[in-house]
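Class, study these two lines:
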Amino acid sequence: MDVLGQRIVIAAFDGWNDAGEAASGAIEALRASSEYDLVHSVDPELFFDYQYTRPSSRMDAEGRRQLTWPEAGLWRPRDPGPGPEFWLLTGAEPARTWQAFASEFIDVALRDDITGLVTLGAMLSDVPHTRPISIFASSQNEQVREAHDLERSLYEGPVGILSVIEHFAENAGIPTASLWASVPHYVASATPSPKVTLALLDRLEELTGADVDRQTLRTEAAAWEASIDAAASEDEDMAEYIRQLERTRDTWDSPEASGDAIAQAFERYLRRRDDGPGDRKR
């Protein structure tokens, strides 16, 4: 039996963990592929700073103003098919009381017999959009690493909410894995990156064996790549920079390159992020 089991929570959060909206885009694609019911949501008053993650207003059909508050929730598939069930943990990254936030969801996971957790993240990196998207797949669980040939991250330093949830899950006996995608940093970070989302879902399928519908994403990914090609064709500096990134990536992918290249790049990225504003990204 697979170490991650047959009832797996897939977790991704908006914010620091979600460059190019790639990880949250993967959750949206999974939700679009099936019907889901909300199992549990947190009280936003306890976990969110409204000056950072602000509520939004809208008008309903009768013209009345409604407020929508930041949220985070766990969703379960309404009619699970054959193979692993994907439960979805998603929302905005909380601003405070992270231990209570993680504990609340892990308690629900234990109550509902969750057997595994996979976290999805995306980071800005010095990579070209024209090459396959790099995915750093790791686990702190020895059995998961051996079963799926994953890396063990040796990073030390400040972390995001995904690492906190992984830590609490492992301590509760729920095995975990982590998938982080590299997003070309010269693409606007607030713009969706469907090619990166597609790469995360491809790797998730490899990891779990679950069949995920990605046809729409393939079309969107091709259009995304073509749009960046068009922009680079009109900007020689950008085009030359992309060619430099391509040469570097091709060197990494050569037989002579170290197998640790992606892991090292991932950890360099995290250290660079440590130099930014402190509270905002943690």
